[in-house]
Amino acid sequence: MKINISGHHVDVTEAVRAHINEKFSKIASHFPSLISLDIILSKEHHKHQAEISTTYEGARLSVKGEDEVMYPAIANAAKKLDASLKHRKGQMKAKLHEKPVSTTPEIAHEIIQEMNLT
């Protein structure tokens, strides 16, 4: 899985890159068809934000994590991304199952006409 990291008012150091790779290695193993992640780290109004966007099974997913410190913001976003990927995977599996077919109930007067009442 390819991880594209960019920073907005934040320096992306090697330690931050290593932390991000560690956090998202679990997600990469659980969702092998996930090709890439776009991560934008920013700091606005004394809050760190980590915004992650990706495409998984034809759906565009985007999550955002916030915290006063950068590392918990990244962890928060990773947790949200994992939850949204699991939700999407569940939607895809639900489409594979056969839907129940509803049958129309027989009308009472048709049943009575077929009965031998003599």
TrEMBL record:
<keyword id="KW-0810">Translation regulation</keyword>
<comment type="similarity">
    <text>Belongs to the HPF/YfiA ribosome-associated protein family. Short HPF subfamily.</text>
</comment>
<dbReference type="InterPro" id="IPR050574">
    <property type="entry name" value="HPF/YfiA_ribosome-assoc"/>
</dbReference>
<protein>
    <recommendedName>
        <fullName>Ribosome hibernation promoting factor</fullName>
    </recommendedName>
</protein>
<dbReference type="GO" id="GO:0022627">
    <property type="term" value="C:cytosolic small ribosomal subunit"/>
</dbReference>
<comment type="subunit">
    <text>Associates exclusively with 100S ribosomes, which are dimers of 70S ribosomes.</text>
</comment>
<dbReference type="InterPro" id="IPR036567">
    <property type="entry name" value="RHF-like"/>
</dbReference>
<dbReference type="GO" id="GO:0043024">
    <property type="term" value="F:ribosomal small subunit binding"/>
</dbReference>
<dbReference type="InterPro" id="IPR003489">
    <property type="entry name" value="RHF/RaiA"/>
</dbReference>
<dbReference type="Pfam" id="PF02482">
    <property type="entry name" value="Ribosomal_S30AE"/>
</dbReference>
<dbReference type="GO" id="GO:0045900">
    <property type="term" value="P:negative regulation of translational elongation"/>
</dbReference>
